[in-house]
Amino acid sequence: MCGIVGYIGDGNVYDILIKGLHRLEYRGYDSAGIALCAPDGSLNIYKSCGKVSNLEQHCKGKKLDAKVGIAHTRWATHGEPTDNNAHPHYSEDGNIALVHNGTIENYKVLKDALIEHGCTFHSETDTEVLVELIEYIRLKNNCSLVDAVRQALNEVVGAYAIAVIEKSNPDQIIAARKSSPLVIGIGKDEFFLASDATPFVEYTQNVVYLKDEEIAVIKKGEPLKLLNLENEEADVNITELQMSISQLEKGGFPHFMLKEIFEQPDTLRDCIRGRVIDGGKRVCLTGVLDNKEKFLNAKRIVIVACGTSWHAALLGKYLLQDMARIPVEVEYASEFRYSNPVLDDRDIVIAISQSGETADTLAAIQIAKEMGAFVYGISNVVGSSIPRETHSGTYIHVGPEIGVASTKAFTGQVMVLTLLAIAVGRLRGNLSEEEEERLGGYISRIPELVEDVLKLNDKIKHLSLIYTYARNFLYLGRGYSYPVALEGALKLKEISYIHAEGYPAAEMKHGPIALIDAEMPSVIIAPNDHLYEKIVNNVQQVKARQGSVIAIVTRGDTEIANIADHVLDIPEVPECLTPIITSVPLQLLSYYIAINKGKNVDMPRNLAKSVTVE
Ligand code: G6P
User: Fold this and answer.
1) Which residues contact 474 (CB under 8 A, 6 or more apart)?
2) Smallest Cα–Cα separation from 464: which of 347, 595, 369?
3) How far does residue 608's CA lie from ligand 1's centre (Å)?
4) How confident is the model over 106-138, as pLDDT tens digits?
5) Residue 181: CB within 6 Å of ligand 1?
């Protein structure tokens, strides 16, 4: 949801910023822009609609030498994605330039007041209001840029991660954050800042994650200084990154999405490492061990999440109810926050988020904490806001996910939820030692079983050609396969723009069955579980209406294989582990259909990977 990057040092400012923008493009790609303070004292700003590559074209032949610079890739909120609305925004006098990720909620009030003071505006963005406010305060109070930023932020309501540079003082960047992420990289005589650490991972491993309402004064040749909004100095806590450059490259794959699908045997191995122990006999989750009392006394679990993470959450309900026998509710974080939730200190709220930055999920966490619930986070990005805001939690450890459509993060989330359900089930005495050992054995083998499923790649690629021009798809599943159906449909929608609906298979007869005809393919997830015979009936119902069926079945299946048009077979696993296995062929199917249609799978239109606005 907008990416910002900044650099001050002796390196090539333009190159570092453009490369950084490419890495952050997953956060938004409606427009991009760059502001550079040149050694001759000029401030040069270039912007362009569309992707970062358009900005690069636009910058050809322009004055690009610089001592310091900031840049932005946008996911539009206020104002259409035009050149004019692109960041950086600059004050009318041309002295300061600013990039912003977030939303200034009271921008209208501030704008009206500034207009009364004689300011004129050239864009429809909330960001231009902030830049004008800072410059207005700086001139009126004859103060430094950092003072003006601090005073302006005291008047602002909303979310922001900002970076500001000043023509008349080009040796510094002032940055600040509230509810939108910002991380500073500390190199040798150079500083980087960005929405996440990916733009500078090859330059430094030393980072400072800015806290909410902290302002950073970044000056070349001086130690980093942090202030709060009351102008008090804050401690600078430097941490070491756990990321390598190879994780950010495509590694020979044409797209990040395909790379991430194929990485799943490794990412699942990383996810379970140290958590399934004693040769696969025991499950050990530190987050549960450290909070035994909370999990023992819990009367209910509420899981909050958005998007794909919400589908993992729904699987969490099946897993936790089956194994831990605790009632579980699953809520969209965006609805939960406005649903007047009823919670107390015997409730556990689990927040699931790949990025750890989703604004709605963060807001839900805040409410849960205020009401006394114990909040447990399941995130991927180390050091992101959700792990910092929750009482405890578990990282999924699947490495940076760049493709906008989530794949390896989903299977990682489901794996962590499975481990959590087993650990809590054992703790509460609802799961036997034998069952833990049986499941632990299968979980240890999951990476190789996913490797096996990936061998379906060529078959799915071929199959995708038959269905590329379908206009609608139905995805059906029951029990553990129902959330998988929802996720399969979402993957297809997101990257191929084909309308797809996920449905509990038995609900089909209450509505969607009316849609079925020869033009409407159904993807039916039908592993060999306790609902198998029931889903055979659903396959028959679709076939009886001339619908074509692609079925995901357990290897050796003959019943559905005889009636479905196409079958994709998966290895046999216990029912609770089927989602990790069955979701993989659906990821590949959506990938190839989108590729056949010529779509940009890594950057689907209108979407962003990290949604830091409401
Ligand atoms: C966006 C992304 C989705 C993601 C959702 C929740 O919509 O495009 O892929 O599932 O946000 O993100 P989170 O980081 O909280 O899992």
Assistant:
1) 489, 500, 501, 503, 508, 512, 515, 516, 520, 521, 522, 523, 542, 547
2) 595
3) 8
4) 999 999 999 999 999 988 888 999 999 999 999
5) no
Q: Give pLDDT tens digits for 317-363.
A: 999 999 999 999 999 999 998 899 999 999 999 999 999 999 999 99
Residue to mutate, 260, 361, 390, 406, ligand 1, most ligand atoms under 8 Å from C-beta: 406
Task: Compute, in angstroms, the gap from residue 177 CA to the centroid of ligand 1.
Answer: 21
pLDDT digits (tens, 9 = 90+) for 308-323: 999 999 999 999 999 9
- Measured CA to CA, the distance from residue 166 to residue 180 in angstroms comes to 22
Q: Report how far residue 21's alpha carbon sits from residue 583's, in angstroms, rounded to the nearest whole number.
A: 31
The span from the CA of 413 to the CA of 402, in Å, is 16
Given the residues 178, 294, 493, 609, the one annotated as active site: 609
Place of tokens 């180390």: 382
Q: Are 377 and 353 in contact (CB under 8 A)?
A: yes
Rounded to whole angstroms, the Cα distance separating 174 from 160 reads 13
Read off the pLDDT of residues 553-611 as tens digits, 9 standing for 90 and up: 999 999 999 999 999 999 999 999 999 999 999 999 999 999 999 999 988 887 777 77
- What sign for the dihedral angle of Cα 430, 436, 442, 447? positive
| CB of 378 shorter than 6 A to ligand 1 | no
Query: In this model, does residue 1 exceed pLDDT 70?
Result: no
- CA-to-CA distance for 118 and 135, rounded, in angstroms? 13
DSSP 8-state code for residue 590? H
Closest by alpha carbon to 392, among 243, 288, 528, 248?
A: 288
Ligand 1, from 389, 610, 613: best to mutate by most atoms within 8 Å of Cβ? Answer: 610
Alpha helix locations (H) across 263-358?
264-272, 286-289, 292-297, 307-324, 333-336
Contact 195, 184 (CB under 8 A): no
Ligand 1 centroid from CA 3, angstroms: 15
Does ligand 1 lie within 6 Å of residue 418's CB atom?
no
Residue nearest to atom 7 of ligand 1 (CA): 307
- Classify strands 206-209 and 225-228 as parallel, antiparallel or unpaired: unpaired
Look up 220 and say whether it is catalytic. Answer: no
Ligand 1 atom nearest the C-alpha of 310 is: 10
> Ligand 1 centroid to 355 CA: how many Å?
7
Q: d(Cα 306, Cα 218) in Å, to the nearest integer?
A: 35
Taking each helix axis from N to C end, the angle separating 408-427 and 578-596, rounded to the nearest 10 degrees, works out to: 170
Instruction: Tell whether ligand 1 has an atom less than 6 A from the beta carbon of residue 205.
Output: no
- Predicted TM-score (pTM) of the model is 0.84
Query: For ligand 1, is residue 85 a contact (CB within 6 Å)?
Result: no
Residue 547 has pLDDT above 70, yes or no: yes
Contact 341, 370 (CB under 8 A): no
Percent with pLDDT over 90 in the chain: 82
Strands (E), 236-384: 239-240, 276-277, 282-283, 300-305, 328-332, 347-353, 374-379
Q: Assess whether pLDDT exceeds 70 at residue 226.
A: yes
Q: Catalytic residue at 143?
A: no
Residues 196-220 pLDDT 10s = 999 999 999 999 999 999 999 999 8
